[in-house]
Amino acid sequence: MFDLSAEFNKFYNQEVVLPGDTQTDLYDKGKLNIKRLKEGLKTYNEKHGTSYRISETITQGSMAMNTAVQSDSKDYDIDIAVVFRKDNIGEIGAQAIKNIIVEAFSYKCGQFSANPEKKTNCVRIKYSGGYHIDFAIYRKDTEHDTVVYYHAGSAWSKRDPKAINSWFKNCINTKGQNLRKVIRLSKMFCKSRDGWDMPGGLIQTVLCEERFQSGERLDECFYNTMCSVRDRLQWNKEVYNPTDVTLSLLQTEAHKQRMEVFYNRLDSYLSKLSVLNEADCTREKALSVWSDFFNHDYWTNLVTEASTRMFALEPRSVQDVAVFNDTEQYIEDMMPVVEQYDAHITATAQGNGFLSHPLQYFLDKYSKWIPHHFCITFTCNHNVPGAVDYYWKVKNVGKTAEKRNCIRGQVVKKQQTITENTNFYGPHYVECYVVKNGVCVARDRISVPIGND
Predict the structure, then answer these.
(1) What is the pTM of this model?
(2) Residue 433 scores a pLDDT above 80
(3) Which range of residues forms the domain containing residue 121?
């Protein structure tokens, strides 16, 4: 297969993976609206003489699995499970608990252009910029010494909100990080044309995991996996829930139609990619077919540049692409994440002759960027009772960190307070995970935008 791995990896890192600032924005929106819901429930309780209280929240979907991708339409979604104890809400019905959530949000979300919307499986909040947050409501109880969860759909039905996250964590631990990358690339293909109505993210995830083809090169790994998915869909287009194989993920005729469309489009565009395996394939041909497949400006620009070099009789050369190790880790792959408590990272900085001040002081002073060669101290404050452990992730984002092969992003066990230096330009971020008995029960994230000077 013609080797465009340098260009392919650059496409993945720069155009597919969500930028750090977008990830932080999504995380902050989820956390903010959990806080709004908790405060709204307090108001609801005061008005109605009740005592409803959220027991835990669990991030679900692409945000939990870290498979979200960039989108020009900014139609990002955040899925959060909100769990109540049955001994707190009693025998209240599935529709009634959603009505309570809608009313609770109404006390704290007056600034939204659209009111919170009760849907069959969730309560949805929409942002004008294209974001939406789905709050799926659960109750939990102990049955025969086992904790059992029920989901508020059209009625209460048994469903574990952690099951898909646990399944995916095991898949990544078994098959490696390239599986996550292939899923993201599959989503980019399905989003590549306006008007395409393709299968949802979970269905793509299940198919990519089922037919995953390992390999050292990401372009080969993705191509071979997509070919295997296509071959599978040729004879079987049914997809089942990976945690309960008695449940089909194709609940409607529209879902089934999307599978037909997905197969046909994969078959069509993969047939064009077959030129990559021909002995006389050139770089220009390879760029052209990848451009046709992803329909993205990144590839279009490379095709234009290649054509210009040919016309000018200039020697062809591979793009100047920084080669770096993708060292980012995800807490979801390492342990269960059940957010039962609150955490908040505070940061103080000093440098360039300044004494220590809160990070925000310097962000305001330097127009939302902090200069190089500052020292920042991060402390994680929380309300988790008893003994806990602290795990931190420091992720460098940007061309300088990539060129120096120092993007970091590993999850490392440390103390409650850590210190870092501002060395690389870019929208970096820091996360802390508070761990109790092997479960991440609280977390927080803070952006650290570092300027050029």
Answers:
(1) 0.86
(2) yes
(3) 20-161
